[in-house]
Amino acid sequence: MAFSRAFLPSLYSIVFIVGLIGNGLVVCVLVKYHKGFNMSDLCLFNLAISDLLFLISLPFWAHYAAITKWTFGIFMCHAVTALYMLGFYGSIFFMILMTVDRYTVIVHCYTSMLSKHRSVRASIALALFVWALSLGASLPTIIFSQVKNESDEWKCRVEYPQGTAWDSFTYIELNILGLIIPLSVMVFCYSRIIPILMTMKSQKKHKAVRLMLVLVTVFFLFWTPYNIVIFLKFLHHLGYMSTCQWHQDLSMAMQWVETIAFSHCCLNPIIYAFVGQKFRNLFLKILKEWFPLCFGHCIIINNDFRIISKVRI
């Protein structure tokens, strides 16, 4: 409790500000320079939207952690939970889509799912389908979130009907959809992609796949601890490790791993800037347009992105 009130509000606020600026910039770059949109860009755009949805929920969780009671009512409890879950599943499903698309293009030499020959409507339909899957996976948690009065304090939490299997179903769903399936798909796809790339001379393809590989690796590094604690909570729910000490330890562990997982929202834009050559160019281009006094006299040398600043006297 002391940890929640002392540190979580500040940490959530920092993640919110940094993530909002970074992901907002990614969305602006992709919208402004969408003429060369490909499947990877479509997925990166929706990944940024997923992170933004997730980030919008953080100020509410920060306030909740600071005063330890929910003051926003039942509707906002449902809405904030929906933002949280949609951001979580949206990130996972669009990473899977991005990985499968690269796998089909590189390993089987098929045309990308979103190519010049495919219509804009088809790409929008595909994105909407993935969002529909994300909503479907999120629905149980959204529906059963409610505000309850506990010790004269209102709490926003998920409460499943007694005597049903919804509790167990949600734990299993989080582990299967949040870790097992995406990890299996990505390990399989990249284990086939990497050997083929090693024999290719196209640096452009190498850099594109390297960006996706870094995104996937960072995602799992930050979300796997969360999924492990979810699995331990599931065992606790089944009656294993059912002591009070285990309950307290799992509650504390959940606060730590949630904090680690939440901070992932700020990292994708940083990865784009340092790993993605295309994004680095576009970031600098849009910053030059928005802030000409700061960035208007920067020179990019030989695509090496070493910046020499010329100061006006």
Automatic annotation (TrEMBL):
Pfam families: 7tm_1. Keywords: Cell membrane, G-protein coupled receptor, Membrane, Receptor, Transducer, Transmembrane, Transmembrane helix. The chain crosses the membrane at residues 12-31, 43-64, 70-100, 120-144, 169-190, 211-235, 255-275. It is a multi-pass membrane protein. GO terms for cellular component: external side of plasma membrane. One of its GO terms (molecular function) is C-C chemokine receptor activity. GO terms for biological process: calcium-mediated signaling; cell chemotaxis; immune response; positive regulation of cytosolic calcium ion concentration. Gene3D superfamilies: Rhodopsin 7-helix transmembrane proteins (1.20.1070.10). The keyword Cell membrane applies. It comes from the Eukaryota. Residues 22-272 form the G-protein coupled receptors family 1 profile domain. SUPFAM superfamilies: Family A G protein-coupled receptor-like. It is found in: Cell membrane. PANTHER family: C-C CHEMOKINE RECEPTOR TYPE 5, CELL ADHESION MOLECULE. Belongs to the G-protein coupled receptor 1 family. This is C-C chemokine receptor type 4-like. It comes from Ictalurus punctatus.
